[in-house]
């Protein structure tokens, strides 16, 4: 944000990027002694700035703070026993003073904005760039500024806004409150510039460089967010017709670690297979997130290693169980697992013996004994209610729906449950490895079908919407069940589209924004998430500004806390 609150400097160190976000209480990290004025006047130096502008995505995508702010506090997730930000999950005493996730994202988003503004203001001064290179680099910075400002304005509402670069050494301690419309005017201006000046394709996945299709896809999302349905449908349709992208034949194929660079992904945050390149201790990212790479593999996993320690121990394929988030009963009920392959492609329901032993009993019969072999089922979680008769002769532990949720849908067991498996990474080096090299899919083609469907529904064209949804549902169908997955135009409603987005995109860091965009956040949380229903209020459609930011500004009467928060 302002220079005394958040600032970033990029420096060239033998080809590596060094950057840091500092506030009034911290000293700057600048081992080289270089300054922006000296560094950002050559193409080589300016490249470090552009690279740095991309890196702030790593504080949100694939990180616990980002998941908590984008998936939790919705209709489809609630907190497991390991949740460290329950205020975001349940809205229980959510304040700017008690949620570190808000502070981390605020600080780093505004650091990114400062860097983008600096680069845009200086691009014309780089003598060794061609005119075409200047246009492309400015287009990248404008896209990233629009991307970060979208996260800021949707999360916090009309807070601080600037397109000015703050000069090094200038201390500014005031902030402004800016209308939401001003943010979006700039977002659309930047994205339109990006569409005109970005490259059509790229082979640079390490940054990863944005392209015209990426800008168009994000623009489609922005059009839908602002109720510009004709524009949203047209832009999404452009991507759908783009021969460079295609839906993968099987939904499950999306999540294979060997298939991350696939034709359905329009833009992803690339995490290096060399984890040291992503880590806090890396020379490339000394001020990066403390957990480095993608952490999604840990956050949605039940503590399977506590089911039966004689038979099932923590291992690499099943992930490191942080037990942060669990599905609401609502999310599980959205799936018809008989017809829809996305249920078993998204969720893990069984855990197999990885430690041979003799054990006694199961959930229904505590007297039975059985010799378990490697590969035998040890734990089974079911979205149905199991009976003693159905479990006769079964020796594994079961956590059926009646043992995890009560009749009202409130979890009675927050340790053992059906777990999201989309983000598991069996290529990790050890069972305790917190980092994954898995890329995070920010925009994929399936979202374009969903955007086009919603926009057409809003335009009074449910037949077109149904056709688009049926394309996704046909891909999702278990072979032989394609007909059962088809819907009619009469079935298309806004709630059905939100249900379909949950089936397709659950866990992909979009849900909170989807509910806010459709004005369904309060309604669906109140009706469908009993954990959060008792606490959510109308003002929760924006998050509280971090208290550290409120304390830092000198114009507190103009820059006050968001309404409803202390």
Detailed description of the structure:
With 566 residues, the chain is mainly alpha-helical. The protein is 36% helix and 8% strand. A hairpin with a 2-residue loop joins strand 1 and strand 2 (16-18). Helix 9 runs antiparallel to helix 13 and helix 13 packs antiparallel against helix 15. The longest helix has 26 residues, at 131-156. The two termini are 22 Å apart. Mean pLDDT is 90; it is low at 1-33 and 281-285.
How many helices? The count is: 19
- Based on secondary structure, the structural category is mainly alpha
Rg from Cα: 24 Å
State the strand order across the main sheet.
7-10-11
Count the E strands: 13
Question: Shape, please?
Answer: globular
Biggest sheet record: 3 strands, mixed
Note poorly predicted spans. 1-33, 281-285
β-strand amount: 5-15%
User: Helix proportion of residues, in percent?
Assistant: 25-40%
Whole-Å distance between the termini? 22 Å
Compute the average pLDDT.
Answer: 90
What would you say about this model in short?
Pfam families: SusD-like_3, SusD_RagB. With about 575 residues, this protein is mainly alpha-helical.
Notable traits:
566 residues; mainly alpha; 3-stranded mixed beta sheet; 19 helices; globular; disordered N terminus
Topology of this structure?
Blueprint (H helix, E strand, L loop, with lengths): L10 E3 L2 E3 L17 H4 L3 H13 L8 H7 L6 E3 L6 H5 L9 H23 L8 H26 L23 H18 L14 H14 L3 H13 L23 E5 L26 H4 L25 E3 L1 H5 L8 H5 E2 L1 E3 L4 E4 L8 E4 L4 E5 L15 E3 L19 E2 L19 E5 H14 L3 H15 L17 H12 L5 H7 L3 H8 L1 H4 L13 H6 L14
Parallel strand pairs: 10-11
Antiparallel strand pairs: 1-2, 3-5, 4-13, 6-12, 7-10, 8-9
